[in-house]
């Protein structure tokens, strides 16, 4: 059962009181219109002062407490790594396990998703570049090079149901191309790091002073750095209602300019491109939403284009975009 607004407010006030004593705060729910969840997000604004905090509060169940504990610890480590620069992580003020409440710094900016939803064409490319630059700073602290092993990724995606989205011919074409690219990619140089794991437009906050904040670190794990870049790029290209003037190649070109050198063999990029497309389609098939059917159709059409020999060699192929941009 999701946490009730009444319980969320009570637990948040108790957690704030433990840190700030009798200081009064006005609480505003930020995700009240979202799907029912085990956690709620509230902004706590100090009465009579320009001070505010973001509070994540959940049901007082062991697994919810464990999840928020993991997030608080990961976020604290990330914030320490990224101090003293324009790319930041909100500082953890406190985590109260008894109240199942995480209190953190309020980034006080605008999310990338807000800019995209409003189709502010003059700002989108710069916002994408700034988001990718945040990723560069986040990855840099744990960066190392290694040899790529495609087998775990290929093995995982092969067991995901996609027949509802792909016809038999396209599915056979996908697996054949992925197997071929996996063989070419094996052992290729790849950039490994502590990846964010769920870096999408609502996880980026941009401030007017140029500071950029990344949010939510529960899913972080050691992985290929390209995962975060692709996750953000594909999310922007297919889950946001972008202007027709902004295509998938434009999205990735802006991200690649912001990110810099991906330090990854082109053969690995070529495999990763198909893997992330297949993963994205599998995720949508697993969680069907009728009104998003057109987005799934767009993903399938993009996969069909990426598998085309002519497109794969064109300047609009995402493999070409990442390779050309990072080496320029």
Question: Summed up, what is this model?
Answer:
The protein is α+β, with helices and mostly antiparallel strands and 328 residues long.
Would you give an account of this structure?
With 328 residues, the chain is of the alpha+beta class. 50% of the residues lie in helices and 17% in strands. The radius of gyration is 21 Å and the shape is globular. The protein has twelve helices and twelve strands. Strand 5 (92-96) and strand 6 form a beta hairpin. It has helices spanning 5-20, 62-81, 112-117, 121-140, 151-158, 168-185, 226-239, 248-259, 266-286, 293-307, 309-312, 318-327, and strands at residues 25-29, 39-46, 52-58, 87-88, 92-96, 101-105, 110-111, 144-147, 189-195, 204-206, 212-214, 221-224. The strands form three sheets. The protein has a five-stranded antiparallel β-sheet with strand order 1-2-3-6-5, with helices on both faces. The mean pLDDT is 89.
Which key features would you list for this structure?
globular; four-stranded mixed β-sheet; 328 residues; five-stranded antiparallel β-sheet; alpha+beta; 12 helices
Proportion of β residues?
15-25%
Total number of strands: 12
* Poorly predicted runs: none
* Count of runs of 4 or more consecutive helical residues: 12
The profile of the biggest β sheet is: 5 strands, antiparallel
Report the C-alpha radius of gyration, rounded: 21 Å
List the helices and strands and how they pair.
Blueprint: H1 5-20, E1 25-29, E2 39-46, E3 52-58, H2 62-81, E4 87-88, E5 92-96, E6 101-105, E7 110-111, H3 112-117, H4 121-140, E8 144-147, H5 151-158, H6 168-185, E9 189-195, E10 204-206, E11 212-214, E12 221-224, H7 226-239, H8 248-259, H9 266-286, H10 293-307, H11 309-312, H12 318-327
Parallel strand pairs: 4-11
Antiparallel strand pairs: 1-2, 2-3, 3-6, 5-6, 7-10, 8-9, 9-12, 10-11
